[in-house]
Amino acid sequence: MTQEFKVNIDIFEGPMDLLLYLINKNEIDIFDIPIAKITEEFILYLDKMKEMNIEIASEFILMAATLMYIKSKMLLPIEGEDEAGEELDPRADLVAQLLEYKKFKNAAQAFEQFNRLDREIFKRPEDVILPDEVTVVSDQVDISLFDLVDAFQKVVNRVKLKDGITLDPERFTIQEGIDKILNKLEEKNRIYFEDVFENVFDKIDLIVLFLALLEIIKAGLVKVFQVSVNEPIIIEKS
Amino acid sequence: MEKEKIKSIIESILFVSSEPVSNSKLREIIGKDYGEIIKEAIEELEEDFDKEYHGIALENVANGWQFRTKEENAQFIINFKKIKPQRISKASMDTLAIIAYQQPITKAEVEKLRGVDSSGVIKMLLARKLIRIIGKKEEAGRPMIYGTSSFFLESLGLKNLKDLPPLSEFEEAQAVLDEDEDLEEGEVEVEVEEEIENNDNDVVHEHEHVHEHVHEHEHEHEKDEGEEIDED
Predict the structure, then answer these.
(1) Distance from CA of A174 to the nearest CA of B (A)
(2) B170 vs A107: CB contact, 8 Å cut-off?
(3) pLDDT digits (tens, 9 = 90+) for A77-118
(4) How far is the C-alpha of B151 from the C-alpha of A158, rounded, in Å?
(5) In b/e form, how buried is each residue of A34-53, taking b as 16+ CB within 10 angstroms?
(6) pTM summary value
(7) Cβ–Cβ of B116/A112 closer than 8 Å?
(8) What ipTM was estimated for this complex?
């Protein structure tokens, strides 16, 4: 008995899976769910889980409550109409949600059928990146925010601000800045601080990129260090 | 350079690369003026390796070219490398499908669709490099936004995201169609066929198709009944 239940737990990732399972098991038309019956079965399962001393995730309770709410609504005369003038079915939202979920489950099933790397298909293994000089030096110096600001100031100073007419260049957002930097890191695992600002000559763009870099550091996506003080700052994918 | 020489260079480059190599990368390495010849050379290589006696195939995945072993040899490679074939759990695959089709997407949006906490699965997919963080959303809490990686394409053997089967293929069909009932989007039993290509104006077509379908069924029914009566 216990064993049987263990298997079930595996199948029911969440309340939506349990619902779909019950619908399937009872050969119910998803577009016309007998709510009373399904609610009863759903709660029966939760009871079974309780008996087994299995902690029921709050999502299941929420779904049970939703089902009971719909059930109670079904008992009342239907009020309201949709745009097409048809009566509003209290089950409509739930059905839409189930259908949406089922769609992705079907897609996942299709993905499962694809020939997959490291299952049916193999490729040359990833390159082993041998440490170059930089990493051989054992004591890396961690960078403080002040070092970064300092380095950034140098970049800004180096970029000579152009005189004359300024045309409004096409700006990018911090979000796009993050993308730019991540794409650079995708190509090479490690870039120099200056590389972030490569080919950027506009002060505002520089600042946006700098803020983007800070975001990435905050998100813990990169490691920033230098080999010793006065050496270039290195940004590495973590 | 002659095409044969270029074929040989491309083969060498692809041999040493673990990542798919794009046409533009090849042009950059071999020479800008060889664009056309490179394309032809790749086509020929593709055909060459397609031969049955080759154990690897040249495939177009993740916007590039890659040598990959042939499916039918999988078991031998698994035995040789003493590895377990990579499996992805159902929950992870569901989540991956959601992210693939709905990207860019936040964890909260994934959870809304799945109706269940998805932190663990997302972490797993990140660790397996099938998805990546593509930024943060400009809203309260600045949640991370996720999307699929280029390794995702490599892993499933897709050229690019457009190569994914259209999501509409996976819609549930309504079991019983009432003939008078207006079809709504999502209930259409999709007659996919070649119409996916020109998606813009096919909604009407699909409706027509289904109606045809329904009528066909009706005719069949009539016929069936007619025959039964004849037999009686």
Answers:
(1) 9
(2) yes
(3) 766 666 666 667 888 889 999 999 999 999 999 999 999 998
(4) 37
(5) bbeebbebbeebbeebeeee
(6) 0.64
(7) no
(8) 0.71
